[in-house]
Design goal:
This protein has about 130 residues and is of the alpha/beta class. The chain has one domain (about 10-120): FAD/NAD(P)-binding domain. The protein is about 30% helix and about 10% strand. The protein contains 4 helices and 5 strands. The strands form 2 sheets. Strands 1-2-3 form a 3-stranded parallel β-sheet, covered by helices on one side. Helix 1 crosses helix 3. The longest helix is centred in the last third of the chain and has 14 residues, at about 85-100. Flavin-adenine dinucleotide binds next to helix 1, strand 2 and helix 2.
């Protein structure tokens, strides 16, 4: 039986805040799992991807996430530019979620699995509910 200290921190949602939390947890050496209801990182932001935000890039990039991305030779956008939601996902959240430090710990529920229920096991694998006929 696992003790609470052996269990990962569970982050709900792979949006800008959830992925930033994951980057900070990684930096601190704390085990984590990110559970995302959508198919991809930034699924909620993607829904308004055509809209340009009012905060320039410099305020949208988390410092811990930036450190991880820089190690991976990420090319940062113009920090004064205003991205669209889609650019926020494509140019920041997706590359962040693909990093080997984060990717293995991100779990998505997608498509026909949208009604999935996650069960936290020792390795925090998602468990899909049986389909109703
Ligand atoms: C049109 C628009 C323009 C905006 N412009 C700006 C701006 O210029 N500057 C600014 O600071 N903010 C702006 N915002 C707000 C910004 O989008 C949010 O502050 C930011 O996305 C919050 O990040 P988040 O990760 O907390 O939440 P979200 O981006 O909402 O991400 C949450 C994630 O969690 C997932 N999720 C939700 N429920 C569950 C669940 N039960 N289980 C698992 N996963 C779940 C969602 O699918 C999503 O991927 C704007 C918002 C909109 C709609």
């Amino acid at each position: 039986m696992s003790t609470p200290n052996e269990l990962p921190v569970v982050v709900i949602g792979a949006g800008p805040v959830g992925l930033a939390a994951a980057a900070h947890l990684h930096e601190r050496g704390i085990a984590f799992t990110v559970l995302e209801a959508g198919d991809t990182p930034g699924a909620a932001v993607r829904q308004w991807g055509h809209v340009r935000v009012f905060s320039p890039w410099r305020y949208n990039i988390d410092p811990a996430a930036r450190r991880l991305l820089d190690e991976a030779d990420w090319v940062a956008p113009d920090l004064e530019a205003l991205p669209t939601g889609a650019e926020l996902v494509d140019d920041y959240l997706q590359p962040l979620a693909q990093l080997p430090q984060l990717k293995p710990y991100l779990r998505y529920a997608s498509g026909s699995r949208r009604s999935a229920a996650w069960a936290l096991t020792g390795c925090a694998l998602p468990v899909v509910s049986p389909r109703r006929s």
